[in-house]
Amino acid sequence: MTKKILSLSFAVALLLATQALTWAVQPNEILSDPALEARARALSAELRCLVCQNESIDESHADLARDLRLLIRERIVQGQSNAEIRDFLVSRYGDFILLNPPFKPTTWLLWLSPVMILLLGGWAIMQATGRRPIPPAPLTADEERQLKALQSTPPSSRHSGDV
Amino acid sequence: MIVETGHYALVLALAIALLQSIIPFWGARINHASLMLVGVSTALSQFLFLSVSFAALSYAYLTSDFSVLNVADNSNSAMPLIYKLSGVWGNHEGSMLLWSLILSLFGALIAVFGRALPAPLRADSIAVQGLIGAAFLLFIIMTSNPFARLLPAPAEGQDLNPILQDPGLAIHPPLLYLGYVGFSIVFSFAAAALIGGRIDAAWARFVRPFALVAWCFLTLGIAMGSYWAYYTLGWGGFWFWDPVENASLMPWLAGSAFVHSVAVMEKNGSLKVWTIFLAILAFSFSLLGTFLVRSGVLSSVHAFANDPQRGVAILMILSFFILSALALFAWRAPLLKQGGIFAPISREGALVLNNLLLTTSCATVLIGTLYPLVVEELTGDKITVGAPFFNMTCGVLMLGLFLLTPFGFSLSWKRGDLYGVSQRLFAAIAIGLLGFIIVLALDHEASVMATLAVAIGLLIIFGTFTEIWIRLQRGGRHWAQIRQRAFGLPLSFWGGALAHLGAGVGLLGLASSGFGVEVVTTLQRGQPVKVAGYELVLDAILPRNGPNFNETVAQMSLFKQGQKIAVLEPSKRQFSARQMSTSQAGIETIQFGQFYVSISAPETPDSVPAQLYWKPFVTFIWLGACLMAFGGAVSLADRQLRLRSADQTGRAAPATAKA
Predict the structure, then answer these.
(1) Neighbours of A144 (CB within 10 A)
(2) Which stretch of DSSP H or E encloses residue B411?
């Protein structure tokens, strides 16, 4: 029985996955004004297709994505700004629709983490390398002799350490 | 019968893996030579039995034996041979079996090539490798048996998921797994070094080739996967920052950091503790990637076999290995004595910076991928972290890394001269700046990131050439002298140079995506459409039958200045067994760019909505990746040569640091 349910959910997952297979923006959706259309494209690339798996509405061919693309274009033609349209969609669907998460208390950690890690790592490196190296111990008599011997050999016969 | 043999071999492999994880480890503790040697024979026989098991499953697929549940669910007698074979790993059970097979292959490689190693180190690393193998084999046998029978057997199989019926499936997962799982060796060696409390340049020298092998395969695997997505998903994107893609990117970033830091360690024994940590990290990300993909915890366009119950089992395996490795690290690493010292401005210093940027990128990808899950769990808010976030954060970090690459590559070891290096790179810097200005002048709408990427890509390429030239003419500018120098320079230098060139080329390819042309239109038969100096004409819309699908093909001709240069055939395929359709893009490569067409379902017999793209230099993305992998392979050849020569001359490894 569980097997059946599992294979069923598998089939559903596959169905969802195949929705991703055709491309999105249809010729009949496009606005005649290229500048407005470019705005619509840029905006829809930032918005998540809510029923898809990790796709923007610009890429998705799900019906919902199409509705949203048309809605955006309608509002652009009405003269709304990108921010207004975005706000409207967030009020309707929540932050989930924004592929670029907003900067707010729950996402502070997300947005600041790269900078914090970089600074913390840089600080750790400074700590590690800033430490004064221990001065090397003076050479023993035996080592002095070896050094003399090395210095007296002509450089050509030495192994060149060139990497 | 053959199928049962495969199942039996699988169970035997588990038993052997358990022995492999216990006996050599015990031998190393009581310093018993023959017990330690048990590791060699068990590692080899585990690989042998898993090969038998894998061959048996392949046989079931090739003969379309639908009495095997896995075959019945994922294959079909009408499928072309190549998809029957690649169908073996096109499903959860089979792909886990491939994973384990590759894991045991790497264990066998330690057994074969590890003769020069100290016996306890070899025994311990084989034991750790055996333990990982045992965990995954147990997982397969308990939850994902690929050999389960289905009685009565159906007359026909369900067919392989049509998205996977592509040559990409034959190549991509094996490459990716060789990369993912290859880091297991690095992990096992790190664990063994920590257990033994001994790590030195010889350790680095032995591990580095394996890390490079894994890194090369992972690079190729990711590139292959990206090209596969590019030509099948239908909108010409090549990287989506999808969780599954991120899962493969994280071990790659950690592995890239590792192959750089291990070079420092090999050179002068410094960065030991950090290198060990990266070794643990790289494989931990491989495990995490396996978990994310296999469990379907993050739903994504690529996950084709999700199962949450199995996810919990993998999560347990993953936590066990990562946590025990980190605990071992915390316990033993402070005992490791740090090696050589270096000035901040030096090759070593630059590589430390490289590691900082790579690991920060890696951490950013990790946090970005898991953040939505955590936020939803804690607050109930659903948020999305998508491509714009990653492009901005990782984009900036990686551009920073690439900007510094040519400088680091030109700095000398121990103590470098940044001012001198900048002077040497003057021409390359000038070319980069010139590229920046030209791009801005030609395209006023160019994005800042893309333009910067062009400049930095040029800087890397010409900076690397400068460094090669400086090295070549050191012995004199005569042709014969230069040729002699070229052969005299170590292969690891050439490998590094090629990999850096690859990075530069790849970066140019990525930047080029900011300069493509896209036209969305309905094509009418016989009416040409202009795209970036090319003309495309729809000639006909035809039905066509494939072996297990029917397709609608839109035949188009591509013209340049009135000359017909290509015929494109984008299509939509309908697979009858699963009632699913896929789309095939029509692609024509012109020099390094590509003309790319994908279609929707035709509206009338004479018209079809289509997306047309001209993508200049897009192939640089994958050519760059291949060049990087090639560079890794060249560097690898060097290491082996030196190992052999060190064996022959009997030269001892540099002084070791004991805990």
Answers:
(1) 11
(2) none
Strand partners, B524: B607
| Secondary structure, 3-state, B30-80 | HCCHHHHHHHHHHHHHHHHHHHHHHHHHHHHHHCCCCCEHHHHHHCCCCCC
Task: Name the phi and psi angles at B573, rounded to 5.
Answer: -110, 140
Q: Is B257 strand, coil or helix?
A: helix
Mean pLDDT, rounded, for B583-596: 92
Task: Note whether residue B184 is domain-resident.
Answer: no
> Which of B18-27, B224-233, B648-657 has the highest average model confidence (pLDDT)?
B18-27
% of chain B with per-residue pLDDT over 90: 60
**Greater confidence, B106 or B240?**
B106
B241 vs A contacts (CB less than 8 Å): 54
Cβ atoms of B179 and B251 closer than 8 Å: yes
DSSP β-ladder status, B563-568 and B534-545: unpaired
| The pLDDT of residue B210 is above 70 | yes
Chain B residues within 8 A of A59 when measuring between CB atoms: 235, 237
> CB neighbours (10 Å) of residue B333?
21
Residues B482, B456 within the same domain: yes
Cis peptide before B152 (omega within 30 of 0): yes
Q: Round to whole Å and give the CA distance between B319 and B309.
A: 16
Chain A interface, mutation test: which of B235, B245, B337, most A Cβ atoms within 10 Å?
A: B235
Rounded Cα gap, residues B288 and A101, in angstroms: 24
Flag whether B153 is in a domain: yes
Region B174-183: mean pLDDT is 94
- Facing residue for A54 by CB, picked from B300, B388, B601: B300
Please indicate whether, in this complex, the C-beta atoms of A46 and B349 are within 8 angstroms of each other.
Answer: no
Judge whether B534 lies within some domain.
yes
- What tokens does B547 get? 């072996």
ipTM of the complex: 0.82
Interface of A with B in 84-113 (CB under 8 A): 94-101, 106-107, 109-110, 113
- At residue B116, the pLDDT reads 83
What's the whole-number average pLDDT of chain B?
89
Q: Is A155 on the interface with B (CB under 8 A)?
A: no
How far is C-alpha B362 from the geometric centre of its chain's CA atoms?
Answer: 14
- Cβ–Cβ below 8 Å for B600 and A54: no
Domain boundaries A32-109, corresponding CATH code = 1.10.8.640
Collapsing DSSP to helix, strand or coil, B283 comes out as helix
**Residue B639 near chain A (CB below 8 Å):** no
**Residues of A with CB below 8 A from B302's CB?**
17
Tokens representing residue B521 in the block: 């239109």
> Which pLDDT belongs to residue A115?
94
Say which residue, B580 or B541, is predicted with more confidence: B541
Q: Is residue B229 part of a domain?
A: no
Average pLDDT over residues B440-458: 90
| CB-closest option in A6, A21, A98 to B583 | A21
Residue type, B407: F
Taking alpha carbons only, the member of A1, A80, A72 closest to residue A30 is A72
| Interstrand relation of B549-560 and B534-545 (parallel, antiparallel or unpaired) | antiparallel
Structural domain containing residue B155: 1-165
Asked whether the beta carbons of B347 and B416 are under 8 A apart, the reply is: yes
